[in-house]
Amino acid sequence: MSSTLCVVVSLLSGCTNVESSILVVSPSQAVIMAGQSVQFTASAGGVPIGQPVWMVNGTAGGSAAVGTISSSGSYTAPKQLPGAMVLITVESQTSGLHSANVPVYFFNPSNFTPGTVTATANPLVAVYSFLAPEGASAQIQFGQTTNYGLTTWTKLAPSSGGTISIFVAGMLATTTYHMQALVHLPDGTALADSDQMFMTGSLPAPVSNITVQQTPGAATAPGVELMCLDPSDGGNELTALVTDLSGNVIWYDNIGSGEWPFPMKPLPNGDMLLVASPATTSSGQVPSTSENLNEVREIDLAGDVLNRISLTQINSGLASIGVSFQAASLHHDILPLPNGHLILLVNYNETFNNQPGLPPGTIVTGDALIDWDPKQAAPVWTWSTFDHLDPSRIPYGISNGVADWTHSNAVIYSPSDGNIVLSMRNQNWVIKINYQNGTGDGSILWHFGYQGDFTLPSGEAPIEWNYGQHYPTIVSPNSSGVFDLMFFDNGNNRLVNSSGTICSSPGTVACYSSVPMFEVNESTLTAQVQWEANLTPAYSICCGDALMLPNGDIEYDVAYNLFTPGMSYVQEITQEANPQLLWQMNIKGPLAYRAFRIPSLYPGVPWSQAAIATSEAVARKARPSH
To answer: Would the pTM count as exceeding 0.85?
Structure first.
């Protein structure tokens, strides 16, 4: 059929003019071992070609020496590998189209090509690349000697074989490292690449004075410290970083001049997720974490931005589904969900003229949650505090006609029932929201805290309730029914008796922060303190977090202790009736909005302190101890 006739017929029958199309073979290359097979397909204009003739090195069907290929495009490598790659081509007997050459490379376990190590935009991160056959996997071990010490996670070769590239991160600045790929072949064979060398670069900006104290003989939990630092009172320093437990920077992201991560957290795919926020101006007061416009970013370990969501994009999406509010800012937290969605925490203002309990014209700042589907690049569920809470309940008062009403600071997912738990600092409440994995009506299932839905045993209320709390975590296997809830209780304006006396009033106890663990019973709406670390005299009026470490220890970030001005600190303690301090990191200068232990820079890979020490063996000999 001529191309002209095909055009005419296509108007009537959908004929595709394959003669003017390019014949495309997929995959475009392959790397396989002796005896392995790989399936090729061919199409023109998106349509499979008719009567294909598959060839290996120009011979239809191939041969025993170079491998055979079936009429359906299944190529099988010979048992005795050829001395060089072979070329796959295909020709359509229907159209006469002929493909370009598609190379098939052979992986010989006894003589494979060593990998290459190259620098990335991040001077502390290298990328290690090498060819691997279909079905293979690999990880990288690295350290300052050939004892290595640390490993990356494991990555699979592409489906038809090819290049595996793995970021190597967790290294000190201006230091020479050894690294080696460990390859696991589909037949069970384990191989090691030759040793490679890499010199890290220097840090691009100063780092605040970080010092570490460790109790002699104490064993700390595995992992490294991830820090989100607000530089408002500490100059233009690195703000998104990870250190080892000696305080040495082993990874950072230079997110931008005047920006800081509000917050940052690791993703299951190995990337980092952060809300980039402008740094505020030092005012001599509590550093402002004002929720100014910026954006959500997903970055890889080299710092490349892979995805971003702007406030403009978010508000356009809200308008498209008819939501009544427009977000003023992203702030404080972001929650990745198991289905790949993100829960965005935003705020916006409403002006009240006829609200009982509020002076006319009061501007109230409240929060909203947005379930954002990255595939659709659109919101699919929303929730607003203005729809579910009383705007006249303002425990922290009104200043110059503006009420910072809810000031939410953490969002967590409850896997047992598919609901969401939200920490609202300025309500002194932790609430559970009927989310039901995106099908819930948004009703508040319970309010945890003073004047909420739960009762405490006699003698515990009101002093044991949460005041200005941050970072709730569920530390039991289940997250509904009867479960354990922990958070950093800042203690702002803590009530000490049923008369409503505030801490530090004459004749009462001084205000203090604590880390309580509550047993929560959703059926009986009762709670009781299971364990608590009373941090007296520390009184941190801002920020912070708390979590349980894999060995059962508790770690918390005392971000803004009034008695240690200009210094945040992180402590690891035992979970005992009389907790023992095992380790402390001091951060002078910027405020540590969040600082917490992560297993490593790679999902599913815990780095023990012994492994980190091995990887830094040379540096530890040369560097004085903190």
So the answer is: yes
